[in-house]
Amino acid sequence: MSTTFASATDTADQKAKLVEFATDVYGYVSDFDPNVGLIVGDESCLVIDTRATPRMAREFIADIRTITDKPVRHVFLTHYHAVRVLGASAYENAEIISSRDTLEMIRTTGQFDFEVEMRRFPRLFKGAEEIPGLTTPHLTFDREMSFWFSGREVRLRAAGRGHTAGDSICWLPEERVLFTGDLLEQRATPYTGEGFLSDWIARLDELTTLDAKVAMPGRGAALTGTTAVQASIADMKGFLVALRKVVGGSVEQGLDLVATYKRAVAELKPRFGDWAIFGHALPFDVARAFDEARGIDSPVPWTAERDQELWKALHD
């Protein structure tokens, strides 16, 4: 029996690197840790997501300083997860922007998520003791916010339910560069534990209509060229469809969660088992798909106790 998360053995740091997507537009990309983005303007910078802690955000800022001395004055949050938002205090005097849904989730679920994420993936929370508290956006929008940043149009769009109850994207229409947050992962297993699977599939279909030339996924390598972007979206959709199919079929046959999980591993591992964090994410993915297949629309909140109960049940 094991009650230790699969991520417990993931202790090797990954060094993120700045990758230029277009003039003054960058991704800060690692092998499969959460990616963040950067847009350099005439007088200041816009950052997309913050990293998990102020210490980790300062690593990003140090690398920003290798290409510009302009201060970060704007921070956009794609969704509320701790690993995306709790580095915000490192960006001093920056305006923090999010969708209204993201703000509401920070207020209602942010503390629980922080505690759970840090236990699940401690390596991603270096310097967690420096986090001053939850990140509260200064400016929110309901559906879309469009503004000109040093002559460049930036569109922040609330995509709706998918990876969470409120995901957003950053889209540069002239350059056709897309920052997807965790709506899209590149050969990294999506975490659907708080997701809405049918809605998420619809969100991916919507991403295809943008016809992006470059996309920075939430995890995994940056995608260059429309063919690569569309292929990645198709792969991600394939995972979600396959997950829903195997779990939904199991529920129809009256299988319990443990039997459903075993069937899901058997069917999904040959196709997706080489994706990053497969062993870590799949138990939570199956648990959420199992609930959704039984008609539970809103995800059941995760706590440390529920995490341990699930892991013990599935790995006994």
Question: Topology of this protein?
Answer:
Blueprint: E1 17-22, E2 25-29, E3 36-40, E4 45-48, H1 54-64, E5 72-76, H2 82-85, E6 95-99, H3 100-120, E7 139-141, E8 144-149, E9 152-160, E10 167-172, E11 177-179, H4 197-209, E12 214-216, E13 223-224, H5 226-252, H6 257-272, H7 278-293, H8 304-315
Parallel strand pairs: 4-5, 5-6, 6-7, 11-12
Antiparallel strand pairs: 1-2, 2-3, 3-4, 8-9, 9-10, 10-11, 12-13
Helix pairs in contact: 4-5, 5-6, 5-7, 6-7
- What is the share of helical residues? 25-40%
Which value, in Å, is the CA radius of gyration?
Answer: 19 Å
Widest β-sheet, arrangement of strands? 1-2-3-4-5-6-7
CATH class: Alpha Beta
Order of helices and strands: EEEEHEHEHEEEEEHEEHHHH
Shape-level CATH architecture: 4-Layer Sandwich
Structural class: alpha/beta
Can you walk me through this structure?
- 38% of the residues lie in helices and 20% in strands.
- It is an alpha/beta fold and 316 residues long.
- The chain has one domain: Ribonuclease Z/Hydroxyacylglutathione hydrolase-like (Metallo-beta-lactamase, Chain A, 4-Layer Sandwich), CATH 3.60.15.
- Strands 1-2-3-4-5-6-7 form a 7-stranded mixed sheet. Strands 8-9-10-11-12-13 form a 6-stranded mixed sheet, covered by helices on one side.
- The longest helix has 27 residues, at 226-252.
- The termini are close together.
